[in-house]
Amino acid sequence: MAPPPTTSAPDGGLDPRDVCVVGVARTPIGALLGSLSSLPATRLGSVAIQGALRRASVDPALVQEVFMGNVLSANLGQAPARQAALGAGLPNTVPCTTVNKVCSSGMKAVMLAAQSIQLGINDVVVAGGMESMSNAPKYAATARRGSRFGHDVLIDGMLKDGLWDVYNDFHMGMCAELCADQHSITREEQDAYAVQSNEHGIAARDSGAFDWEIVPVEIPSGRGRPPVVVDKDESLAKFYYCGFNRIQKLSCGNSNHQHTHFILLLGDLCPQYDPVKLKKLGPAFKKNGSVTAGNSSSISDGAAAIVLVSGEKAKNLGLQVLARIRGYADAAQAPELFTTTPALAIPKAISNSGLRDSQIDYYEINEAFSVVAVANQRLLGISPGKLNISGGAVSLGHPIGCSGARIIVTLLGILRQKQGKFGVAGVCNGGGGASAIVVESMQASSRLRSSL
């Protein structure tokens, strides 16, 4: 069932059940085994929640529910969202729910929070996403039954639960290759987009655009030394992480059903971003393919959180409303076609918001691969100047449970900086799905005062 379009109240203010964004925060995005890798996803989530509540000037005691996306939950312990909430200082009476919609997890968490406000269940909710891909464990899948003879096999939990298409039994990168073939997107176009993503990301960093989004993370140093403070996206601030750039065969499956696939091996860290080196990278997922480590997103760690309140509560508390959620939608198609599902979800979300395509000022489409952004841009007819203008997952990184919320935070920052009014964020997810959300910036509005 589609949510009702959000419209302005007759007096130009807020309706009581409008879903208002009053605070946002995200951690810097850390590289695989990089600066944030010593912290679990739940700790990163706590930092983001604390930052968002502090910026919103909302007392944690007022929060009625928490929804946090997380994909790689193995070895985190029970109820990751609950851990993040209590770690952020929320009362132990606050219900918490962990959401797993693969890469759309963080956005779906925000959508669930919005629904609870629209339905009158809650007035103050925190939602977002968190992931530490660095800490995803490897599984000894047969250890519980015992091993009678021969070598045991370790399964990479990150690959198995986050990056593998279980329906076709291949890496998600093979879906990107299929997308490139079906939509005639060349290696050159993908590399050009990757260069653009990095240039946009570096420009946003250097201009201070990300400062509005990022809350610093303190890394304990031990032995009485002061903590290390991480306040920049690692791939941009220190180096461009080439990620995986060599191919190895992998047998995957059980003893009765083995398959051989091409997978990725960890490459080297490259000083700064090098467009020339980008052209020299070999295909990462299949021989003679066009998808490489350089034009794909990188494995990362990070968290993002958003404080949502009802229009009525915003007025009562005199909160500054950054934006309101106008509409949202999910879509799905064949699992191997997940890369273009944002082109199905985004029009639904815009329609649900009561708006037209022509009214959208800026778009954020998660860059799982460069080909995802290029294909959806074509399918939706989006002007390049409106899409991912602060870079994206190709340049910043893609902590999968976090990214859906992270792109909402970035979109709100862009609308604020560019004085835009309406924006759309969309993210594809494994299994053939996608989620999209429409926001309306309220940055021009002054701090609201109660009129009740």
List the helices and strands and how they pair.
Blueprint: E1 19-26, E2 30-31, H1 41-56, E3 65-69, H2 80-87, E4 96-99, H3 105-118, E5 124-132, E6 138-139, E7 155-156, H4 157-162, E8 164-165, E9 170-171, H5 172-182, H6 187-207, E10 217-219, E11 228-230, H7 234-237, E12 239-241, E13 244-254, E14 257-266, E15 269-271, H8 275-280, E16 300-310, H9 311-317, E17 323-332, H10 342-352, E18 362-365, H11 370-380, H12 393-396, H13 403-418, E19 422-429, E20 433-441
Précis, in short:
The protein is α+β, with helices and mostly antiparallel strands. About 30% of the residues lie in helices and about 25% in strands.
Overview of this protein structure:
Keywords: Acyltransferase, Transferase. It comes from Aegilops tauschii. Residues 320-440 form the Thiolase C-terminal domain. This is Putative acetyl-CoA acetyltransferase, cytosolic 2. Belongs to the thiolase-like superfamily. Thiolase family. By secondary structure, the chain is α+β, with helices and mostly antiparallel strands. It has a domain at 19-135 and 295-441: Thiolase/Chalcone synthase (Peroxisomal Thiolase, Chain A, domain 1, 3-Layer(aba) Sandwich). Helices cover 30% and strands 25% of the residues. The protein has 13 helices and 20 strands. The strands form six sheets. Strands 1, 2, 3, 4, 5, 16, 17, 18, 19 and 20 form a ten-stranded mixed sheet that branches. Strands 6-7 form a two-stranded antiparallel ribbon. Residues 237-271 and 445-452 have low confidence and may be disordered.
